[in-house]
Amino acid sequence: AQTVTQSQPEMSVQEAETVTLSCTYDTSESDYYLFWYKQPPSRQMILVIRQEAYKQQNATENRFSVNFQKAAKSFSLKISDSQLGDTAMYFCAFMNYRGGRDDKIIFGKGTRLHILP
Amino acid sequence: EAGVAQSPRYKIIEKRQSVAFWCNPISGHATLYWYQQILGQGPKLLIQFQNNGVVDDSQLPKDRFSAERLKGVDSTLKIQPAKLEDSAVYLCASSFGRDNEQFFGPGTRLTVL
User: Fold this and answer.
1) Which of B42, B56, B99 sits opposite A91 (nearest CB)?
2) What residues in A contact B91, CB-CB < 8 Å?
3) Domains contained in chain A, number
4) Lower CB count within 10 Å: N or C terminus of chain B?
5) For residue range B94-107, what is the model confidence (pLDDT) as tens digits?
């Protein structure tokens, strides 16, 4: 069974600093997606960034980038120039890409990130 | 574009009572998901619909939970009877297809006393 582990339950950084959130996963599959989701205090979850396992290039979205290490099964999120609005719960997630019934998203337990003024 | 709508936003019930949650997905989204998010954990998929058919309900406690998606649009999730451990936020999400981005609703926070 696939698992997603986020080893940092909570982090705090000063505004404008760079922060990296860690995520590791376990799977025997070779084709899959990885995601980072953001859940602000209002609780509406939004997708931050998505990575296809077959792509070697790390995904980036403005201030958000990932470090995808497929062999190490590691998928960290880097937030540059952090802003107060980045304060949220961040979930790392994994999804198989086999077209089967078990192609569900599996979420980690999350990292609560506080951006301090 | 309107997002995923859910109601109610909050619900408090006593154990053994019944409760129902409603979800209206984004227009045109064929795939609809219900997740359970217990405090301090990530969301867990309960059931996934493709149009009005069930794709995956392997993690749905079928002795007490039921869900339907009539006409392939709105969906309801019901719990009958509720237990204390059902206290959680119930999230609905929708996507154009199974490989497309999921858009989440604001969730329904259920407290079972």
Assistant:
1) B42
2) 45
3) 1
4) N
5) 998 777 889 999 99
Beta carbons of A43 and B102 less than 8 Å apart: no
Domains, in order of start, for chain B: 5-101 (2.60.40.10)
Size of interface A-B (CB pairs under 8 A): 43
Task: Write out chain B residues lying below 8 Å of A101, CB-based.
Answer: 55-56, 58
Distance CA A97, CA B96 (A): 16
**pLDDT confidence band for A102 (50 / 70 / 90):** low
Q: Write down the pLDDT at residue B101.
A: 86
The 10s digit of each residue's pLDDT in A78-90 is: 999 999 999 999 9
Which residue of chain B comes nearest to A97, CA vs CA? B99
CB contact under 8 A, A109 and B105: no
How far is Cα B95 from Cα B92, in angstroms, rounded to an integer?
11
- Residue A92 maps to which CATH number? 2.60.40.10
CA distances from A96 to A14, A34, A102, B40, B99 (A): 36, 9, 8, 24, 10
The predicted pLDDT at position B1 comes to 63
How far apart CA B68 and CA B54 sit, in angstroms, is 9
